[in-house]
Amino acid sequence: MTEEAPLTDDARLVARAQAGDPSAYDELVIKYSPRLYGLLYHMTSNHEDTNDLLQEVFAKAYRSLSGFRGKSSFYTWVHSIAVNMAINFLKKRGKRFHMSLDDVDSNVQNDKDFIELTANSTPVREADLSELQQRLNEAMQKLSHDHRAVVTMFDIQGMPHAEIAAILGVSEGTVRSRLFYAHRQLQNYLEEFR
Amino acid sequence: MRDEDDQISKLLRLKRYEQPRPGYFEDFLKEFQNRQRAELLKRPLWRVMLDRVSAFREQLTASQLSYGAASVAVLMIATVFTVDMLRAPLEPGGPALAAVSPSGGFGPTPFSGTSGAMHSSFNRLASAPVSQSVLSLEEPGLQEPQLSLRPRVDSASLHQPRYILDSRPASYDAPFDF
Lengths: 194, 178
Fold this sequence. Notes:
Chain A is an all-alpha fold. Chain A contains nine helices and one strand. By secondary structure, chain B is mainly alpha-helical.
């Protein structure tokens, strides 16, 4: 699938939704809720907060849809809304929260990265998967909101630097420098696995 | 350093396997729709109207706004022009007045749409001496007439017809002769 085809589909759905077709917006919700869920979940590390935020994101996007002029893709636009709402939520939440993590899909055991990491020569071979998950999330929560956002989008969701820059409204250089700093921070937090 | 960074990236990539329960996203859409309906019902009517007006205004383009403003301007000009036209017969110099001179003379009135018969009658009447107070805007050289909306009454005009009906003084009408 080329990059143009999804944009065209989204543009058509957005036009129909702007014209008052609720089923078109439902299709956009179905299409983007998994990705936006992942973004919000990895930034908040709490399933309940993620569910509430996801509702708010789509509600706000719907209210603002009439003002969407298509200067960026709907994908970029709605991700920008999600990131901003997540950061605002985290600022209000502060440090008083508890992690409410989703279960790890059993397919992880077939992932090549998982296999490599649990091989004999890697530091995490003895770690229980749930403990690893816990420690990673703790380390992620210690990052600043901006650094956590770039790590979530680049490392977890696999977005390219250019896409992240467009969503955050910063330069690609800023994205790269934030990633570099965040990785150094995470390495320090996970030092005990060495 | 590079290897450690690579390991961090791999660990982070594994987090994408953290997923909500099966069926979550299907239920999410229903929950979202229910929530939207509930919000619409909760919102006050004035808020709904305000949002609709705001959305309508956002949809208006510059050309549409210009067209609307131009239409309003044209309507206003037309209204002012129409009001001026309706008021014109009541103002000085209008064709509806016939001033009566104290000396009894009846000068030509500035009727613009006078019929031929009426015009000839006025010509007869105009043969009488014309006082300076005759209202006539079509007679150059005359002094500016003194306008009066009511017939003037003085001793000299007591025996003169005060009102003109159908181009003839009313008192000249012959009584009914059965």
